[in-house]
Each structure stands twice: as C-alpha cells, then as structure tokens.
Predict the structure.
Amino acid sequence: MLAAGCSPSEDAKAPGEYVGETERTMSDLGRRDVFLRVDGQSFTKADFLVAVSMQDKIRRMCAGDPLTGENKPAQEYSVWAQPRTLSEILRHALIRQYVSKHGISATEGELDAYVKVLLPKMRRKGKTLQSVAAELGKEEGSLFVSYVEDDALAQPLRNHFDTEHTLDITDDDINAVSNRIVRYQEMAAASNSVERAALEKAIEAVKAGEDFAKVARRFSTTPNEGDDWGEYLLEELSDNPKLAAWVRDARLNDVSGILELDDGFSVVKVLDLRLEDVAEEQDDDVRRFVWRLARIARPYFETPDDMTREEIVAMLSEYRNKKLQERVGKAIMEQAVVEWPYGTNLFPKAEAPVRTPPGRQVETKGEKK
C-alpha cells in the first residue's frame, strides 16, 4: 500500500536481469539515463527523483510536518528512502503492466474506498484525491494518483487469481472455525484443571510445614524458582497486576494462593522484605520496599474466546486474502521481463553518522584525543 510510505520498510527487493556492461550507482547517472525497464517500459533517473520527492512529501504529511524544509524525521527517512522508492517503482510498474495485459480494473467504489482509508493516514481527512495531488505538486501529484489507482487494484487482482473461490466464506467454513474454538476451549480447560490441582497439592504440602523449595522441586516446572525467584520493587511488577496486588499487602514468609500470571499459574512466597535506598534517575535515593520472592510455577494454557460470525468472517477473509496476495505477487513477477541496465546495486551502503559526546573530540588516524 502507498500508505506504507508513512513508516519505514524493508530494503528494496529488485529481481530481474542485469543487462549493462558497467555497473553504476544512481549518483553516477544523468537525469535521462534509464536505470530500469519493465516489459519494455523505461524509467529514468528523473522518474526516480520525482518518486523520491513524492514519497518524502507523503511521509511528511503522515508525520504532520511541513512539505518543504529540513526536519529531523525527514533526515531519518532519507536513510532508507532511496531503496524503498526503487522497490515501489518496480512494484507499481509490475502491477500496471499486468492489469493492462489482462484487462483488470478497479471500480469507482473500490477506488473511493481505498482513498477513504488512505487520506486520514496522511492527515488529509475530508480532502479529495485530486486536492491532495495538487498539494504535492504537478509531477509528484500525477505519480501519486497513479500509485493510488494501482493500490486500489489489490482486491480486483485477488479476485482475478481466485479461480478456486477461496475468498468465498460458507456456513461450513464458519462452523468449522467455531467447532475448533470449542475443542481448544475444552482442551485448555482440562489442562488448566490438571495444573491447578497440582498447585493445590503443593499449597497443602507447604501448609503442612514442608520446605517451600522442596515442594517447588517436586511440583514446579521451574523448580529453581522455589529457592529464589528474584528481588522486585512494587513498580517493577506493573506488568503483572495480580502479583502486584498480592505483594502490596504481603509480609515476610507469606504464601499466596494460586495466581494466574502472564507466564502461567504461580504460588508465591516472600523470602525477604526490607526497606532500601533506591537510586532513581532524576531524584536522590528514596526509601522503597524490596520483596525477595520464590515461587512454584506451572504452565497456563490460554483459552480462546468465543467469536461472533462477523469476527470469524473477518479472520478468514484476512487469512485468505494474505495467502492469495502471495500468489498474486509471485505470478506477476514470474510473467514480467525486468531489466537493470546498470545493475541493482544502485545505492552505496548507508553508514550511521558518528555521534560525538559533548566536550569530546573524535580521534582520527595519526592523532590523539
């Protein structure tokens, strides 16, 4: 999707045939030099520069930045802008060539639906496709409209390849998902019942006076935690609210009931509770309670929630569209003739800038700080 220009992406993937004699980088090419041909359609460095400018302006729109002038986000974007733009030029050329050959088009409704989702991401909600194109400028705006029209073809392209009607969702499909959810719920409930029963026996043994660590070695799937799980401040337990709630009122040698934590069922014991000076980043040392805990842990198997018919349809649609999209991309690439007159290594590897701490000088070869 064009909206992917709102966030960083992977390096360009540029398959095809190298047909030149001397490899060159984009910076070596003149504006009229052709760096890519797709089924005979040529793309020059001038085309590339327009695409880079368009993607930069789209990114600025998404970030709420002005469309001209330097800014830090734009500088960070420029590190990956060129290979990403190269990938987008190739992708859109492949789509355009394929749909032209096979007479595939998007309806006005499909185009409008795509625009309605795209423009709010660019912070242009309530605008029209043409008004945003005008804001981008003549060349960038024209390219933007063509890219939007290409991306609106995603569903028509999937429909074209859906010869087995895998996108159609029947009552049998929905019932199959519902039945699987029920089976998983039953299996998880049975497993969790076994795990809780084991911890109930562990609690009985501890209450009978048996050493907590020995009980942990017998019942826990992580028995070393029966000796010492770790030391924690209350704020460090914020990701485990049930544990934090119990610890807040716990005293030395207290043993919990069964707690359902993020990583499973646990029975927790306080081995040590003390006040310590704790250093904070911006304040002086402050007094904080520190709990040293041990636990007996057993796995918890998450039970899948029930799903409505609409949720099942949405889940199946997303999965099937994704699988079909992989087929679309592979088929389009296999049928295309892609040529790179100067090779695909068009950009030197970007190097991260050297950051020098304040008051320090960078040592260069033959010099000392």
